[in-house]
Amino acid sequence: MLRAPAEYAPDMLVVFDVDLGHTDPQLVIPYGGRIRVDGPARRVTVTY
């Protein structure tokens, strides 16, 4: 998974191992919710 972004879009931020969607435990984000990903801080913020 990480090979393609490294080759084709080296500045792209890749987020994985986050409990969103069809996982257990599950974090549900309603329509209109916003996610902010701060790569350098290694932080994901969800507001809705």
From TrEMBL:
GO terms for molecular function: carboxypeptidase activity. Keywords: Carboxypeptidase, Hydrolase, Protease. This is Muramoyltetrapeptide carboxypeptidase LdcA involved in peptidoglycan recycling. The lineage of its organism: Bacteria, Bacillati, Actinomycetota, Actinomycetes, Kitasatosporales.
